[in-house]
Predict the structure of Citramalate synthase.
Amino acid sequence: MSKSITIFDTTLRDGTQGEGISLSADDKLKIAKKLDDLGVHYIEGGIPGSNMKDIEFFNRVKDLRLNAKITAFGSTRRKNSLAEQDDNLQRMLAAGVPAATLVGKSWDFHVHTALQTTLEENLAMIGDSIAFLKSKGLEVIFDAEHFFDGYKNNPEYAAAVMARAREAGADWLVMCDTNGGTLPHEIQDIVTSLTQRIPGAHFGIHTHNDCELAVANALSAIQAGARQVQGTINGYGERCGNANLCSIIPTLQLKMGYSCIPEESLPQLTNTARYVSEVANVNMPVNQPYVGSAAFAHKGGIHVSAILRDSRTYEHIAPELVGNKQRVLVSELAGQSNVLSKAQEMGLNLDPSSEQARKVIDKIKDLEHQGYQFEGADASLELLLREATGEMNELFTFESFKMLVEKSAGKPVVSEAFVKLKVGGETLYTAGEGNGPVNALDNALRKALLAHFPQLKDMHLSDYKVRVLDEKDQTAAKVRVLIESKDYSDTWSTVGMSTNVIEASWEALVDSMRYALLGQISPENTDLLDVGQRGLVNH
Amino acid sequence: MSKSITIFDTTLRDGTQGEGISLSADDKLKIAKKLDDLGVHYIEGGIPGSNMKDIEFFNRVKDLRLNAKITAFGSTRRKNSLAEQDDNLQRMLAAGVPAATLVGKSWDFHVHTALQTTLEENLAMIGDSIAFLKSKGLEVIFDAEHFFDGYKNNPEYAAAVMARAREAGADWLVMCDTNGGTLPHEIQDIVTSLTQRIPGAHFGIHTHNDCELAVANALSAIQAGARQVQGTINGYGERCGNANLCSIIPTLQLKMGYSCIPEESLPQLTNTARYVSEVANVNMPVNQPYVGSAAFAHKGGIHVSAILRDSRTYEHIAPELVGNKQRVLVSELAGQSNVLSKAQEMGLNLDPSSEQARKVIDKIKDLEHQGYQFEGADASLELLLREATGEMNELFTFESFKMLVEKSAGKPVVSEAFVKLKVGGETLYTAGEGNGPVNALDNALRKALLAHFPQLKDMHLSDYKVRVLDEKDQTAAKVRVLIESKDYSDTWSTVGMSTNVIEASWEALVDSMRYALLGQISPENTDLLDVGQRGLVNH
């Protein structure tokens, strides 16, 4: 049997049904381009029958001239009506896409309860709708909703649904574990059974993660004969999410001998995952398999000693294969190895046996104990190590800041900041306004620094995270701020800590500029449009 | 074969090797008590050989008189030395625990590269160490590190390691997929093979999530004969984490006919997961299977219509079985069903066909489009719906606030807030100080309100999240603040949005008090120690 697997990406449709995910048409176009670069075969763009944003997407995506086939998603015709006159189906045609995904009921319980119609009418709805779209020249992917629950309950009917879809011309018969409750061995049995009942058809699998088995279920289906996998980047989707393509693709390709995307594209996986999470504006869990920032991050002292000798001791694959990288974490579990490895990574002269090394390791552990987290703030860690090795050149000295926010009912809020620094022998006192306190401080700080350091003009704040640390009294609790800064080619993160969110933000802001002034930053790539090229790999 | 599965929880040991997780001895004791209430069989508390916090834990945990067996983790004796003289082993004894988990190498590659010793010496290290601890009356769980990689590479040696452990008296032989790269069918084959080679032994499985298969691998091992599962709450652990017990336990117990924890304890699962994430101070992904706040959250209009008719249409189990609950999400994908269902849930009179309903649905969609997210802020949503239905009683009116933060080099930061409100006909102008701007505003606001509304005294801010929304210019971007407030029995969340983080925080703070003043809150449970009882189920 063929070892080629078709990758069907539904990030832009099923993915948007996850809590906290909402994509504009622009967002979808950016993501579609990225998915196409990765090499997925189908990109399901949305539901033209119910979403104006999606109609806009389908219109504009044609101009991108993507290799992937764009598909529109929709239901079979309404009961007791004609396919030709069905609004949904008409809108799917109007979307002008080469392929359509039709979802139809395959669980008798749903036919009775949700559709409130007969088993026979449901078969007709499926047959008619597929035949109609096929007659208009579209490729049709039939998604049999709740297929596994349906097959367990009434295997004859579920199989009849698939048979009808095939007769009507469906190009793919996709078995969906819509409620996410099926187990891998059940998937294996049912897929094997169906492929025997309908030999020669092209089968697909669409799983959900309600038991944390979406990936395992998809792999099980493929081993039993399915050749299309439907999933999403980062596993976004309704409830617990869809099958995570970022886990499935590398597992199939690197461990199971299948081919999904071009081999040379696999290293784009991590970058793609992060890009999509940025556009979707959701945090990517650090521990996400393959592509998470902690996927190859080693913390325990024993692990670190071993991987510094040979990465295969604690890594199941080389991170570069998926575009990720190994990281050594510095924490209170850290041995000397972790800190020294970091110093070496940064090109600093830290003699492992020196008093200097011992002191900075103690200082780091102490700061971590106070709540600093250098794991996500490599630039602040580097500044600390440079202070320890004497390789730090302070180009400005902080004197004071004042920050004022005023708001009256019915009037816009006003934020002003006043910053006093010393550069060389000169005292600079600047005032800045902004849309918020951090913006005002940033503006005042830049005014003070830019005159002397014009290289700072291309850097900007690209992400700002706040975390409150202690539980007992939350408005008097320690606050940790992580700032991510970017310029054309680099990304760097700094941390600040205080019970005062403004002071913590100030600390992280100042560190971001001290780091920029180290001379590590050089203006290079002027492509402002593609976030993906702007140093995400460094994060 | 028995259907009882032994649950071995290593949240407090392997779990702490995950990035961003750091637990004090106090944290560990709180969590241990919670795990014991849930009914796990073993609680691995830490590594007495290398961690002072853990020695403190082992001393103090005895006073809790838990049902679960506490175990200490450590390595086999060092090469070319005597077990009796090994520091690690001595500290494991000194921990005074009834059971010890000994980790030993079972992959010849590791014996040569990491330990730099001979295969025979490694076997002796394992045999000696186990025999030594057994002679001191301990139960011994042997963790064969990298077992599956070891077995694939050199099955005779890996099996010999297990045989030696058994001969020396190990009570459990645990196969660890330490690098997380093994596949479910390989697990099945290898576990089956080993159980045939060493019949009658008690086998365990310890998996990692580097391919997103930790849960599937654990289930596969159990189906092949393993009877102990090692994992962590919420899947915390090194790199991509350990096997997630919150996914394994309900799957084994509700779907596969095994028994792990007492049936009446299973509904505590969600509360346990959230409690542990709070103590560990890490966000729980909303889409976590079974226990995530979105695990049974329905967003698409079609899904919502169907589940309002019958939950089984889109839920694989009843959420209450694991202590979770169904939620209907309001978003731009929402149909009328979502909003109306929420209104009904809140006990409000919103006539579905009314102009009122149409207006508030439009308003919600518009606010969501601006960036408000009511999904995580039920209290703000309720206030909005109440405004629409005229069931909102505003007890105070906002006039103005000023907020000032000052910092000079070498001096502590100062935050002051000045708040002007009207209550009844009376203007109240208060000043507050704080450890930060939100704390200062909170204090000034409370001073103004408490005189008239003493019922606010028991509420406090329990979580504070900030998210920056637009990418282009991050310090002038929209900021969304989510505040979680608590009193003795309830938890409620409110949202604020602005380009100004102070104004956004103010909005969320004011909403939290408006909500508290609705009279929904009643002081009940005065047990301050157990966070778990304080309304977490409501979140």
Confidence is low (pLDDT under 50) at residues 520-539 of chain B. Chain B has three domains: 6-280, 297-372, 396-522. Chain B touches chain A through 128 residues (CB under 8 Å). The radius of gyration of chain B is 28 Å.
